[in-house]
Design goal:
The structure holds 2 protein chains of 2 kinds.
Chain A (H helix, E strand, L loop, with lengths): L1 H23 L10 H4 L28 H4 L41 E2 L5 E2 L4 H6 L3 H8 L7 E2 L5 E2 L3 H4 L24
Antiparallel strand pairs in A: 1-2, 3-4
Chain B lengths: L6 H25 L7 H7 L9 H19 L4 E3 L9 E6 L8 H10 L11 E6 L23 E6 L8 H5 L5 E3 L5 E3 L9 H5 L6 E2 L14 E3 L11 E2 L5 H4 L8 H5 L5 E5 L6 H8 L1 E3 L11 E5 L2
Parallel strand pairs in B: 1-8, 2-12
Antiparallel strand pairs in B: 2-10, 3-4, 5-6, 7-9, 11-12
Classes of the chains: A mainly alpha, B alpha+beta.
The complex binds iron/sulfur cluster (2 copies).
One iron/sulfur cluster binds next to helix 5 of chain B.
Chain lengths: 188, 308
């Protein structure tokens, strides 16, 4: 099967990714929370199907771990517009139907939250996105939605959905194109 | 008619022989390397077609080329002749519902494959098309240049060598300097190509390019990881084209092509058509797929698709 194959291909990559993440200090700050995310592929009991080797989630500088600030703050589960903090985030992603705490966990501020209530690390955020975007999730796992790099017949690297799509405003932003080719009459 | 053996006949034969010698001398002066040309020029001149080279001959050719290129670019240039991997037939997928026409692929290709920057040669050409007209090549715009892409009402279709299963370019080559390899890649032996450009006329996809002048390729930007049939520096006056990055993909493990890796939207997919688990097979089995100019029966192995 596709998934099985992908899983085999990424086991060594996952190990490497963990090292990178640890080195980057992301997991070093919360080592006890690390394994569920990226070590799954290597262990014998994989709780939620295959795990994928992905680079570090693209956090805004200094924002993670969230608990650094939030451990002092009592969670307010009332849906509202944030006025004091995170005012730079303008939700443009089915904003009529959800707000922060539908995806970010209320009690463990460093985790995301699935509809089932299960808490997941940011490294597995594709599972959160996949709850609504099942077709894209399926294509992504097969290496068809999104960019994959590495070896076509060996180890591959995936990107998280959020590396290309800002989760709060997910439409892909237009880019400046590279220059057009030189017209034949101008080639000397 | 002079009778054979007669004085006239003798004279005729003599003069014909003389004439042939004269012709040979003139031709020689025109096309043969000069008397004082270095040994390597003579070796290159008498080099056989790539497919007829024995192992030791090939090794000699490669050593000669590596020496020449390393000297020219001032760094260690590797020329490989990695053969096809058994059981592999390369296929390519391009997601038209994703491509935004940013041309990163065209420039990534130039870097990887040592194309001439000036005069410019690009193996990938990105066409801008009108959404209302669909794939209407008469309407295609190659020189679009807005501040941002994609533009409203348009979609984009990059075109490069389609690695046809029945390549007309191969059929027309008068000297068999171009052929299809077992893994499906159509290649050119740049040392055998005579530059007649018949293949350019025969290719329905505009995928072949002629280098009229010495490549403008800064030594610092030259990619020293090359393949004989791919991105090695080409002599002037030959035809060149996309080889699915033969220098990368024939290795085990082999990297994705440069255009797959550089595309910011992940529109480009690559893999083994004979492997039912490959990305390209997933695309063919699950998405809406078409091949360009299907009616010509060239059978491209380059599949345009719509992921959504
Ligand atoms: S790099 Fe990707 S998005 Fe940009 S033109 Fe090429 S295929 Fe299209
Ligand atoms: S696309 Fe053109 S150059 Fe490539 S194999 Fe087909 S006919 Fe030949």
């Amino acid at each position: 099967m596709n998934m099985e194959r992908a899983r085999r291909a990424i086991v060594p990559a996952a190990a490497a990714a963990i090292l990178c993440l640890a080195a980057a200090g992301v997991l070093a700050a919360h080592p006890q929370e690390a394994p569920a995310g990226t070590a799954g592929a290597a262990s014998t009991h994989v709780p939620h199907g295959p795990q994928f080797a992905v680079p570090k989630p693209p956090f805004s500088p200094g924002i993670f771990p969230c608990s650094d600030c939030h451990k002092e703050i009592r969670p307010n589960p009332t849906r509202r517009e944030l006025k004091d903090e995170h005012t730079d985030i303008v939700l443009n992603h089915a904003q009529g139907q959800r707000w922060c705490l539908d995806c970010h966990d209320t009690t463990n501020r460093d985790k995301l939250r699935l509809a089932s209530g299960e808490r997941i690390p940011h490294e597995e955020s594709y599972r959160l996105c996949g709850q609504c975007h099942g077709d894209k999730y399926r294509d992504w796992k097969a290496g068809v939605h999104g960019k994959r790099s590495g070896m076509w017949n060996g180890e591959k690297q995936y990107l998280l959905c959020v590396h290309c799509h800002n989760p709060h405003d997910p439409a892909f932003k237009p880019l400046q194109p590279m220059p057009p080719p030189v017209r034949p009459e101008n080639i000397k | 008619m002079p009778k054979p053996g007669s004085r006239d006949g003798q004279a005729f034969r003599m003069s014909r022989r003389k004439m042939m010698k004269g012709v040979a001398a003139v031709l020689g002066a025109l096309v043969l390397p000069e008397k004082d040309a270095s040994a390597s020029v003579w070796e290159a001149f008498f080099q056989k077609n790539f497919r007829e080279l024995s192992r030791p001959e090939l090794e000699k050719v490669i050593a000669r080329l590596e020496k020449e290129y390393s000297g020219r670019f001032g760094k260690a240039v590797k020329v490989r002749a990695t053969p096809p991997i058994e059981g592999v037939l390369y296929g390519y997928g391009l997601d038209l519902s994703r491509c935004i026409g940013c041309r990163r692929c065209a420039y990534g290709c130039i870097q990887e494959n040592n194309q001439s920057r000036d005069p410019q040669i690009q193996w990938i050409q990105v066409l801008q098309l009108n959404k209302e007209r669909g794939v209407d090549l008469e309407e295609a715009e190659l020189y679009y240049n807005p501040a941002k892409v994609p533009e409203k009402g348009h979609f984009y279709m990059p075109v490069q060598c389609q690695q046809c299963e029945r390549p007309p370019c191969v059929k027309v080559c008068p000297v068999q300097a171009t052929w299809k390899e077992r893994d499906g890649i159509t290649v050119v032996d740049y040392n055998w190509c005579i530059g007649c450009r018949y293949c350019m006329a025969a290719c329905p996809y505009g995928a072949r390019h002629f280098n009229w002048k010495k490549a403008g390729l800064p030594a610092a930007e030259m990619n020293p990881e090359t393949h004989y049939l791919g991105n090695r520096p080409r002599p002037v006056g030959v035809v060149e084209k996309c080889t699915f990055c033969i220098q990368r993909v024939r290795n085990t493990p082999g990297r994705y092509t440069a255009c797959v890796e550089v595309c910011p939207v992940g529109a480009r997919k690559f893999g083994n058509l004979l492997d039912p688990e490959s990305e390209i097979r997933y695309v063919i089995e699950n998405k809406r797929v078409f091949i360009l100019k299907e009616d010509l029966n060239t059978r491209p192995k380059f599949y345009y698709f719509y992921a959504t």
